[in-house]
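From: lab user (bench 3)
To: helpdesk
Subject: output format question, protein + phosphoric acid mono(formamide)ester

Hello, I'm new to running complex predictions and I'm not sure whether the block I got back is the full result or only part of it. Here's what I submitted:
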Amino acid sequence: MKIRHLLTLNDFSRKEIDDILRQAAVMKKSPAGFRRALYGRTLAMLFAKPSTRTRVSFEIAMFQLGGHAVNLNFSEMQVSRGETIADTGRVLGRYADAIMARLHRHKHLEELAKSAGVPVINGLTDLCHPCQVLGDMLTIKENLGTLKGRKLVFLGDGSSNVCHSLINASSMLELDMFVSCPRRYQPKIKGSFKLVSNPKEAAKSADILYTDVWVSMGQERGKAMRIRALKQYQLNSSVLGQAKKRCIVMHCLPAHRNQEITSDIMDSNNSVIFQQAENRLHVQKAVLVKLLKN
Ligand code: CP
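Helpdesk reply: Thanks, we reran it on our side. This is the complete output you should expect:
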């Protein structure tokens, strides 16, 4: 049987994503019914970058499904001394039933998936962050009821992994996606989205306003330049004032309060940011069960 991976959202069909979101909602409502869903199964979690949400939500997901997760940090592994990612994958795939990896380069995740012989899940690469955006889609459904036709506006670095996965999801699930960003930070992938450089113009009648940090892990060298270029794309009360009254505010976290988003908006009644973080746990359970059920 063909091994399935989740490297980008495009690895799944629209029906499969709908099924994952439905299954995640069931698992969130009745977690007790799934306590042995992955009994005895194992997940190796490989981190080349720091993480709070991805690491903890995957580890707890495996425990709550009856399985076990092993946390592996690059700095403590032979890969940090020159062992290739492909050889690492060949070994881990002989111990674990699946691998979740957070790597710098998407190309390395593809190499891992080719070599591992078990399902590989993207826990974030420079290209995309599919698990984050599956949780985001569940959060939008919970708050707005439907996804199709909703106006989703991403403000900030349009070339970021989260924005790329939002474009993938919007194209597939028929959200109306807008990206408001400087020219040099436009998305680097194809998909169905509109560019509107003025953030207030973009935010008009939005159902969802979404932002992410301006300086991601590994981008520290260009920090001052990035902050200067992205300054006018801050998610604040004047931007939110352009959106629908019941517009939801989203951020994948971690946030830099009063940089890409003001603290008052982050803690406002429009914010669903911490619900987003929680939903990582529930969607990842659905993904794990789907990929490991055989
Ligand atoms: N959003 C997200 O992936 O959080 P972590 O970096 O803490 O895993």
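A quick orientation on your result: The mean pLDDT is 97. Let us know if anything else is unclear.
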